[in-house]
Specification:
The protein is built from 3 helices and no strands.
């Protein structure tokens, strides 16, 4: 059977390790225009792709991410 000290150590380790988790900031791979596409076409395709992704996952803001992580909503200033 697991004693109380082991449970406390395990819970502490889980807490410490979960503090290191962060949300991804975005892709780290450079994308280039396809063969035969102009830079303007590439920018239009990229914008359309980003809009479609944003529509699918919803808006992102650092405050919204913090609220979801903590489970609270900040008080609105009037």
């Amino acid at each position: 059977m697991i004693d109380g000290t082991t449970k406390v150590i395990a819970a502490s380790m889980i807490g410490l390790l979960s503090g290191c988790v962060t949300a991804p900031t975005g892709p780290d791979v450079m994308a280039l225009p396809g063969a035969g596409k102009s830079h303007e076409q590439f920018r239009n395709d990229e914008a359309a792709c980003q809009r479609a992704s944003q529509d699918r996952i919803g808006p992102y803001s650092p405050q919204a991410a913090a609220n979801n992580a903590v489970g609270t909503v900040p008080r609105q200033e009037q």
